[in-house]
Structure formats: structure tokens, C-alpha cells
Amino acid sequence: MNLSGGSERRSDRAPSSPRRRRPVSRRVRSQGMKWDRRGTPSSVSSAFYCVLNAFVRRLRDAVVFIKQCRIITEKSAVDVRQDGLHFELGSMLDVGKWPVFALLPPEQRKVIRQACVFGSAGNEAIYVTINDEVFALGTNCSGCLGVGDLQSTIEPRRIDILCGKKILSLSYGTGPHVAIVTADGEVYSWGHNGYSQLGNGTTNHGLSPAQVSTNLLNKKVTDVACGSHHTIALTSEGEVFAWGYNSSGQVGSGSTANQPTPRRVSSCLQNKVVISIACGQLCSMAILDNGEAYSWGYNCNGQLGLGNNGNQQTPCRIAALQGINVVQIACGYAHTLALTDEGLIYAWGANSYGQLGTGNKSNQAWPILINMDKERMVEVAACHMSHTSAARTQGGQVFMWGQCRGQVVVIPHLTHFTSTDDVFACFATPAVTWHLLTVDGDDHLTVAQSLKKEFDSPEISDLKFLVDGKCIHVHKALLRIRCEHFRELLNERDGDSIEIQQFSFLVYRAFLEYLYTDTINLPPEDAIGLLDLATFYREARLKRLCQETIKRGICEENAVTLLSAAVKYEARDLEDFCFKFCMNHLTAVTQTQAFADMDHDLLKTFISKASSYGAFKN
Fold first, then answer.
1. Domain residue spans in the chain?
2. How does residue 585 score in pLDDT terms, banded at 50, 70 and 90?
3. Which one is the CATH code of 445-613: 3.30.420.150, 3.30.710.10, 3.40.50.300, 3.30.70.3340?
4. Does 304 or 107 have the greater pLDDT score?
5. What's the CA gap between 527 and 509, in Å, rounded?
């Protein structure tokens, strides 16, 4: 729908200077052609020469671009290692097997870097994107999504307080409650708090993440684990703190009184260095730096591995593992798996679903070696919400046993999966994650993500734009390839800086960032300026993206303003959208100041179109 009545072109665009000719290589001259004094073969038309010249320039730019991408990618990989973020940004975290993510469109799923699925039916999830934004979706029982209310949602909702925090560890309880550890060593918790499992000294549910500060404020926490209604945390100094429900001594305080705030688990761990922690429903586990394993809490199924069924209110060393170096422990609902440095698996505890993998369903109060008769094991997996067990070999084979979709599997069964996570997505009840899903890491970035990382980085840039007194650092080769305007501009001038006066810093920076990322990083209210730039530079795709961004910010107050901008910049799709919005909210729109200030010609056209639309019918 055209409200402009005609085409309006910008006349302030500077004419381009004649392009300088580049010498033709000697190799081409040696082909036996006749050449005129300008260096142009007489048998070749000037049009063909221009095409050939343009191709050579693009080829040269592509070579420079590839070299810069290579440098950027290698540098970014080093940066990732130095930051301690060990993940493969180039890979997509496969969350498609988890039903809670089924409604997410592919473009949202492909940017997920970390994810956790929890809840009594696997119907709640929290995930982190490659931009370190945190989102949640699901039924939101007890406020466990951390979005500030109790409303369930099938659309992801952003958890603002956690964005940019770089989550290192995440665990959840049965309530559920959720606890996370950030890269700064801080602990945040939210959700169910009937037993003080949030560690804030109260029993009030937490609807939003809040930092757990008591006794942890000056500590750098590295890991967190949750049981049904209790939480334990591990510090960088090898200390363990615990809080919450303590009916069976799972907090390790020496009593059965609930613990409202973090309290250090001392007793026989007092002068020892703990390197790993885990929780079952009502028990807790720890591994020391010397490979010893300790357990405490509920023990009626033998899940502590102490050879008896008595609860323990303080940590006890698992004597049956004397001389065995344990490197990982995973806890199921009431059973435990331990992986040794030799790649062997020991299991103990409840076994009514065959979750110990012993070939029978008898409980075991002592650790028993699982007869895998396979290659070395490198990972064991279990979750305190289920009776399922899984393990992965050094060669990548994945085994599962225990309760598998209602079936009792008493010995490890080889699957076609490549990850233990898939076992819990497809066969566990409920289908929840046993740990925080994270993209596997080999410290590489894709070219696209490397370029995004290097935008406005002065280290290896070769050009800077000066806008409103501020610098934006870029790479000439990329600009030539991505934008016709820059291809002409940079071929006509040398130098390492360009001053821009006709656009604001915010708009021009967003434009340059778009060339690196192919996305717009501007709120809808600022995107009109970028639409102006896109029209001026004749960037068709950018213009389409601007229109989509602007649409998201339309309201009754600004609808006429956006309509006027759409007409001015010949944004037909946005023009139609704004006009239809005005028709659907005609009374409110016509009472706004923007409508009163509307250009006379545009108002006349608007009324005519509205009449044709049937807006004034009785």
C-alpha cells in the first residue's frame, strides 16, 4: 500500500570518483594479444575488461578476507582458552530430543550453548545462549523458572539478573529449587524453599534468582549440587558448604535439624581438599584430591556404600574403596555410581530397577564392580530424579541400564547414542538432564562467531570510523565484501580512518556490526535511523531487517510516526503493517499527538486509504 504518491530519492549522496585502473599482469600480456596504449587488449571489449577488473578486485579482497578470518579464528580460539570457556561455539547444542524445547524455532535452538531440563515431568527448562543470555520456559512450579512470578510459559522468558554472568554449574531439586554458580564464584538460588534449601535463612519461595551470601560472600564457589530439598556447594579451596532439608543428616551438620543458611561441612573433611560433589535425593557425596570418597545422609537402601543401612549425620569415608582412586561420582534417586581412574565402574544402593547393572535387582550396601568387559569407561551418569544409569566408553560407546521407559534393564545395554545425555532424554522417567548440558569443547570458533568477536576490536583492524568523536574499528576486506558502498569508497581512497557526520554513532555502529553478524543489535525505537542508513546505502537486506525490528515496537502512540518513516524511506512492508495497525486501533491512534502533527499530504492520503479500507462505514 503506497501512501507516498511517488518515489522520493536522496540527492545528498556524494558522486563516486572515477576508479583508478590497475596494471594488467605480464602473464596476461604474454597471451599473444595486441594491446593499445592504455594497456587494454584491442580484441576485448571495454565492458568485458571492467567485469574482469571487478572480478580480480573481488578475488583479491576474498584472499585478504580469508587470511584475516584465519588470524581472527586462531586468536579467538586462544581467547576462549584463556577465558576458561571450554566449549565448541561452532557446534549447536542438540536439545531437540527434549520435548520441552519442541516448540522453539530452529533459529532459537541453534544459539543455545547450555541447557538444563528439570521438573517432575521434565516440563521446565533453563538455557543459556552463545551471547550469554539466560532464558526459561515451562510450568514454573514454585517459581523455579526465576522469572519473577508463578506464571507458566511455553515462550522463553529472559532471566535478566543472570544474563552475562557466565554460568559454570547448575543443579536443581525436587520442589523444584534451582542453584547456579557463576564464573565469579557466586551462588544464586530460587524456587521452592519450604526447607530453606535456597540458603537465604527463610522458608519463603524465591521467584527470582538471589545471591546466597551467608558464609559464602568471601568464597569462590566452583560447583553446586542439589538433592530433593537440600543444596551443597564446593569452593575453590576444597571446602564444602551445605544447607536445607536435613531429616537424615544429608547436610552433614551432625544433627537432623534443617539448616537455613550455608554451613561448612567439617567433621572428618575439616583438613581435607574436596574436588567433586554430588547429591542423591537425601544423601550427599564428596571426592577428595587423593581419590577417596565420602558419603553422608539417608542410607536405608545402602546408597552411602558403607556396608550398612544406617543414616549418617556426618561424612564417612567409603572404606570398601580403599586404595581405589575415584574420579567421578553420580547419584541416582537412591543409588550411586563411581568411576575410577582406571576406567572401572562401581555401584551400590537401591537396585529394584536394575540400576546397579549387576544382573539382578538386589540392593547393595557395599560398592560392587560392574562387569562391563568393554573398553575403558570415561563417564558415568545418574540423576537424583530417576532410577536410570548410563556410561560412556573412551571410544564413544554409550551404555544404559536401570529403569528405561518402564522397562527393567539389569545389565548395561549398548545403545546407538553418542552421549549419555541422550539416554536421559529418551529413556529416563522423568526425562530430565543429569547435569548442565554444554556444547562439547575443542576451543574453536566458527568464522561467523570469530568475526563477531573481533568487531570493533583494535588489535588487528586496519580501518577506523570516527563518529560523534568515537572510534569504531573494522576490517577493510570484510567491508568490501559485505557492502557495495564500501567497495566503491575504499577503492577510491587510502588511509586508515574515515569520519562520518550524517549518521549518529549508535546507528552507524549498529550498521557496521550488522556487516559482521548479519543481525541488528538495536531496540525498535532506534531502528528508524538505521532504516534511513539502509535506504541511503541501498542495503536491501538490512532494510528488511530494520522493518521487522521496527514492527516489534509499534504501539498506538508511535504508529503514525512509524508510518511516516515507512513512507519517507519507501519501506513498503512496514508501511502496510503500520497502516493496518492504525486501522485496527483507529480511535486511539487518531487521538495521539503524532496524528495531529501528521504531514498534510500524508494525512490526505491516509484518510483516502482509510475510506477505501472501510474505516468510516456505519
1. 445-613
2. confident
3. 3.30.710.10
4. 304
5. 12
SS3 for 553-580 is CCCCCCHHHHHHHHHHCCCHHHHHHHHH
Q: Specify the long-range contacts of residues 422-428, CB closer than 8 Å, at least 24 apart.
A: 422/97, 422/398, 423/381, 423/388, 423/390, 423/398, 424/381, 424/383, 424/386, 424/388, 424/390, 425/97, 425/98, 425/117, 426/97, 427/388, 427/400, 428/383, 428/385, 428/386, 428/388, 428/403, 428/404
Give CA–CA dist 546/457, Å, rounded: 25
Whole-angstrom Cα distance, residue 193 to residue 200? 9
Cell 568393554 maps to which residue?
A: 374
pLDDT in tens, 497-534: 999 999 999 999 999 999 998 888 888 888 999 999 99
How far are the Cα atoms of 44, 121, 138, 146, 187 from residue 141, in angstroms, in the given order?
75, 11, 9, 10, 21
Q: How far apart are CA 238 and CA 266, in angstroms?
A: 11
| Amino acid type, 391 | A
pLDDT value at residue 72: 46
Which 8-state DSSP code applies to residue 58?
H
CB half-sphere exposure, 512, CA atoms < 13 A: 23
**Could you report the per-residue pLDDT of 78-111, keeping only the tens digit for each?**
343 333 333 333 446 789 899 999 999 999 998 9
Percentage of the chain exceeding pLDDT 70: 83
Q: At residue 510, what is the residue type? A: A
Find, among 171, 115, 124, 164, the residue nearest to 144 by Cα. Answer: 124
The three three-digit cell numbers of residue 355, written as one number: 540400576
Is 174 a residue whose pLDDT tops 90? yes
Q: What is the pLDDT of residue 402?
A: 98
Q: Looking at residue 7, what is its pLDDT?
A: 40
